[in-house]
Amino acid sequence: MRVLTVNVVEELIPGPKETGLTAIDKRPQPGRVAVGERGLAGDRVCDTANHGRPDQALYVYAEEDADWWSGELSREIPSGLFGENLRTEGLDVTGALLGEVWRLGDEVEVMVRAPRIPCITFQHRMAEPRWSRRFHQAGRPGAYLRVLRTGSIAAGDAITILHRPDHEVTIGQFFGEQSPAKMQAMLDSGVDLWDEIRDTARRIAARP
Description:
By secondary structure, this protein is of the alpha+beta class.
């Protein structure tokens, strides 16, 4: 399991008219890139109402899922196209548990916090018919990460799973299946959850 690329915005591009400029266009960076509590050095966030919080410090997407989309869309999905900060290889991002902890390289530690929810900017970026719906139905959302330990990372750094919490709710399941029983078990496990994720899990768990 390794980091394939580390991606940072180099130039803001026009987004949908409702949002204006966007920092979704990430590009692979050479060498090591510093990682702080808010994300990668040199990166930017335009839509601060919906992005840029500590629980969204990094967005990670798997090369295997990008390859699947490449086949579905008959086009290349180069690293950074989805706005991801990290493209990984050999890591099951969709199968990662909420609250799972990884080490990136020798220094950086991160916690899996939430699936990515497709938005109007992502729809505009991809210019594919019904893209948001297709992305949701495919169940390959990638994951937002919180930085627990800062440092630096680079392409080629190994990824190590340090901790898997005692529940069964994966990124893919939270994005799609949303079983009330599994949500309650996750809440009962005491795992550290993003407040928004905890509130959603409580609503789902309360369903008859």
